[in-house]
Design a protein that fits this description.
This protein is of the alpha/beta class. It has ten helices and eight strands.
Amino acid sequence: MLIKDVKAIDVHAHFGEYIDPRSKIINKLCSSDIEYVLDCQKKANVSFTVVSPMEAFELPAKNCDPVRANDEASVIADNYNEVFQWIVVHPDFEETFRQAEKRLASSKCLGMKIHPEMHEYHIKEHGKKLIEFAAKHKAVVLTHSGQENSKPEDFLEFTDACPEMKLIVAHLGCRYDDDPFHQVYAVEQSKNGNVYLDTSSANNVTPRLIETAVNMIGADRMLYGSDLACYFSPMQRARIDSAFISDEDKKKILYTNAMKLFSKIPYVEEKI
């Protein structure tokens, strides 16, 4: 079997209307209903997709309505077998914590999504509350990372104190300076081994970025993510398929690591 024929699990995707007052053109191009998302995933040979709703990250942040967006995402996840959900938790919206408490028990919700940049807070300000909440519920957290409010290493004081939870720092290569390996450093420096990274970044087309990350930390805590519909998922898939790493490492990134991390995903390796 060729690597391109292996079905992947995309741990980082979105659906819904992209709303950013800075660019009406980008809003239109990056907005997508769930049917478009799934059409792209078929081209990328993705079996399961974990989504969060774009409307939960509307700019300016004061206009977003994560509670309503979470409710809509729950309906989508429950109605599509191939779709799972990240429940968005916003530190300024207490109702999102109550939603998470309820929804994390669902077989279709794989964890929490946080976004310090779009929600306009620094992780050091709210990280303790968010990570301790995740630890209480033994939840996986996917976070945007790499910019000033979400420097990957800034999460470690919280994840090191809470081994019960697991954190995915998204967007390998996304950075606030000239160093594209901050997500790698966070994985490398994690005392509990409970920090992972995902590959969902436009920066992953940089030559040797994926390969160097695997050389630095191995592939066991790297996950495939596309950030669809912000990026075109077949392009993201091709970057892993064509990487100068072993087929075993490609399979770890594409699906086996996700299956180990998320017990709610129903298929076993032999069926993929």
